[in-house]
Design a protein that fits this description.
CATH topology of one domain in chain A: Cytochrome Bc1 Complex, Chain D, domain 2
Oligomer: heterodimer
Mean pLDDT of chain B: 94
Number of strands of chain B: 26
CATH architecture of one domain in chain A: Orthogonal Bundle
Largest sheet of chain B: 4 strands, antiparallel
Number of helices of chain A: 7
Largest sheet of chain A: 2 strands, antiparallel
Radius of gyration of chain A: 16 Å
Low-confidence stretches of chain A: 1-41
Strand content of chain A: under 5%
Structural class of chain B: mainly beta
Strand content of chain B: 25-35%
Order of helices and strands of chain B: HEEEEEEHEEHEEEEHEEEEEEEEEEEEEE
Amino acid sequence: MKSNSMPGRPLRFAILRGSVRSLLASAAGISFVVLAGAAGAPQFTSPIDNGPLEIKLLPGEKITEGVQKFYETGQDPYKGDPQALAEGKDLYETYCQACHMPDGSGRIGPSLIGDTHHYPRFTTDKGMFEIVYGGATGAMQPFGKRLTQDQILHVMAYVRSLKK
Amino acid sequence: MRVMTAMAAVAAICFAVSTAGAQTVPKSRDEVAYPGGHLPGNPKVALVKIADGLHDPVGVASAFDGSGRIFVCERVGRVRIVTKDGKLLAKPFLDLTKINPLGNEVQTGFVEQGLWSIAFDPDFKKNGYFYVHYSSLPFNGAGVILRVTVDPNSPDVVSSEQVVKTAKIVMLIPQPYYNHNGGMIQFGPDGYLYISRGDGGWEGDPLNAGQDLHVLWGKLLRINVHVPDDSIPYLVPNDNPFAQAARNRLMFLFGVTEEAFSKIKMGAKPEIWAYGLRNPYQFHFDKKTGNLFIADVGQNSWENIFWQPHDSKGGENYGWSLNAGAHCFPITGPNTTCPQVGVLPIANYPHEQPYPDAPKEKTGFGCAVIGLGVANYAPLNGAYLAGDWCSGRLWGVGWDNAAKKWQLQELEQTQLQFTAGNVLEDGSVVAVNCYCFYTADQGPLANPVGALWRVVDASKVPAGAEVARTVK
């Protein structure tokens, strides 16, 4: 399949795309889809209207093992991994700090540290992914248009590391 | 006075008899509309996507030539055509990135720079003239208003040769800083070209440009581009508010009243129609009434929408930077006081913190007001629409005849960073959005692509249409 777009059923499609993965992981992925119910693959939703979030691969984007793990567990696999955090920091400095400040304390965008957050889903990795991938309002744009899902997981891991 | 076409004038008179006759400019600060109001009928609207795949679209216009084409300005220096049925043509209508062998004609180094707007001559069908306004790279960011003539044999693509052959620089406005260029150009109902220019930039109006009648910055300008011969760049309409006051005169003292002296503005720029503006990126005439709405982007605290009746004689001072609309500049706390200068806005909305260390607004805030146009259709019925670049809010401003005041209603909050809007041939209001917020700009061709949207009655969304997500 050549299309970058995978409307409707992001997870299953992602799994089908994961040509580099081992058979075992693939089996796990498929069973996850099955577990998610006959209605279809688990669905990300937009933080602003809870509507379905369509996942579109960027040109050349591959589903990495990290993204695969995230799909399967709902956990950001890069949290606490020093090398991943360094990469995440780099991305954060390029794409996020202008609005959220280097320490995450917020300016144009709200604080990403502390315990009070605008979107309750901020506290889960799936929820933060939905905010960063799909965007919130206005200036908090959908970063899924700029960053691969793998990069988003890296930057998220870095944001979590800022939390005091 | 803006002399209107016969039809518009008749329409205006009819309208005046029904409702608009009551519309007035607020005389005191408490008459200015704030968020939380309701337009008559509490309209529900939706934004329906017309076309996608536009690089940093920052301006949009119709040619009013019966073709139904929608012309979208891409910041980098191109104008793209979206056809009546929503198809984005691959070849640009105009491409200023290629006319000059030394590189792009357009300066886009800062996100507020680029090709801002296009306007078609009222006689476009006959003379093929259109005008664009952009920041020029060879002129170091100066604002250029360029007239180009379309070759009737190639109505959808103006070749580089055709641009070079027919180009006429109508106006060149030097720009001291890279921001606050303003940028919209539109023909008024009087056939004159109106041009919005920001205060020249930096922040806080360091040059006092808003109040300085000797500079073109911080102004709405009005010129006559219909000259008897093209060796004349443009003419200043005789009835521009400072056209006479600006003339030099012999010295005199006796027999002249102080009032008469106060009206002499020797050396003022006669092109000025209105002043005291900060960055009026978009402004629109109500095609039905001839009234004018100006959306003026504010400093740290308030966003303003100004209004002029169709019979305005010009010369309005909108207060910047002595005021920020109905508020003080600088605003230092919740109770800052200052005298009111000039003409009040009809509506305003705050930033998240409308004064230093203010409690954060929970709703109804933004940071840059982008006028979209007057929607003379149900359910908006004459409301002026504006979007906010930062918060994605869509606002409606309208006259409430029952309450005898202006109302400002938040119609919805979207994910869109609004950059421009306009009224099309069929009367519908369209808007464009980019992913080019200051702190996220990666260049006019590197940012994710934006789209073109139409504002429709929420109960009349066409089947299968893509509707902009809104906060529930």
